[in-house]
Write a structure and sequence with these properties.
15 helices; alpha/beta; Rossmann fold; seven-stranded parallel β-sheet
């Protein structure tokens, strides 16, 4: 009797934002697992990043988070979906700045509205294929709700609430079947964020040393993430866990004073940390960047109290090592940039 030697059908992982930092890291990690096929979503399949993923074996597909029909088509036959939304892209885009001005709202609030709208589009489309997803098949990048975790005290940490208001709130409220298959992956401070506000992260002093300047206590422990190197490994470990859990993806946890001290030792320069006021941080952002300074200063104030994770109990890499023995994050977290 002939035996069926056909290889088992691969699981299809659909990765949103596959040419970005988080999505790219996730796509590359799962492409290393022969059990998975990866469908990489991007607005521009002809971009260098998209072509690089295609060369690695990904099926690169055009999709737009503002076009629900493109998401529904892209999610077809998915076994799992990785979701990530963008606050900072609409925040910085000139056309979005112009649209915000026409509406009479800040670019900060406008970017929040874009992120919420696009997040809901993702959730709505994913709900349409929820039945076919694996038991733990909807992995979402998110952050804590500053509004809720601060007891209503902090209502303008828009790039936190733009994520939390959809993942998990909107999904929990409107799509219970999808919610049962969801894992929430919170992300720590990106180690590349110094490039957004260099005068706050690495303020060069007159004598040549570098000073980090945030409205956060120097010993307030915060999570730090090398997103390109570590996000994929972390999500890969999350995929092996039961659904319904929330995580903090970080390579290390350290206060900003310790962080900048280690950075200085690694790079052979003198460093210091200074806790500054909210207004000081806004001023450090420089002319024309007040909205950026305000948004990040709100985040740093929230990081100080109640804390970057809002006081939530989140699982970490230590909790995941039992299911992924090679989950090694943050090995080069103070490397020079």
């Amino acid at each position: 009797m002939a035996t069926n030697t056909a290889p088992p059908k691969k699981k299809l992982l659909v990765v949103i934002g596959a040419t970005g930092n988080q999505g790219g890291s996730v796509a590359r990690r799962f492409l290393r697992d022969p059990r998975y096929a990866v469908r990489a979503l991007t607005r521009n399949p002809a971009s260098p990043a998209a072509l690089a993923l295609s060369a690695l074996g990904a099926d690169v597909v055009a999709a737009d988070l503002d076009e629900p029909a493109s998401l529904r088509a892209a999610f077809s036959d998915a076994s799992a979906i990785f979701s990530v939304t963008q606050y900072w892209e609409p925040f910085f885009r000139p056309d979005c700045r112009a649209a915000a001005a026409a509406l009479g709202v800040s670019c900060r609030r406008y970017a929040y509205d874009v992120e919420v709208r696009q997040g809901r589009n993702i959730a709505d489309a994913a709900a349409g294929v929820a039945e076919g997803l694996e038991e733990n098949g909807f992995w979402v990048s998110t952050l804590s709700s500053a509004r809720e975790c601060s007891g209503g005290r902090m209502t303008e940490v828009y790039h936190f609430d733009g994520k939390a208001d959809v993942f998990p709130r909107y999904v929990d409220e409107w799509w219970p079947e999808l919610a049962r298959k969801m894992s929430c992956v919170h992300t720590g401070y990106f180690m590349t964020s110094w490039g957004i506000l260099p005068a706050s992260y690495l303020n060069k002093q007159a004598e040549g040393s570098y000073q980090m300047r945030f409205p956060t206590r120097p010993d307030r422990v915060v999570p730090h993430l090398d997103v390109n190197a570590d996000m994929g490994n972390f999500v890969y470990a999350v995929s092996q866990m039961p659904p319904g859990k929330a995580y903090m993806c970080a390579g290390t946890f350290a206060g900003f004073e310790e962080y900048i001290q280690l950075w200085g030792e690694k790079n052979g320069v003198k460093t210091s940390y200074k806790q500054v006021t909210f207004d000081d941080m806004v001023a450090d952002a420089g002319p024309g960047q007040e909205d950026l300074g305000i948004e990040v200063a709100h985040m740093c104030t929230y990081t100080d109290d109640p804390g970057y994770n809002g006081g939530m109990e989140l699982l970490t890499a230590e909790d995941l090592k039992a299911v992924s023995l090679f989950l090694l994050l943050g090995a080069a977290w103070v490397r020079p940039e």
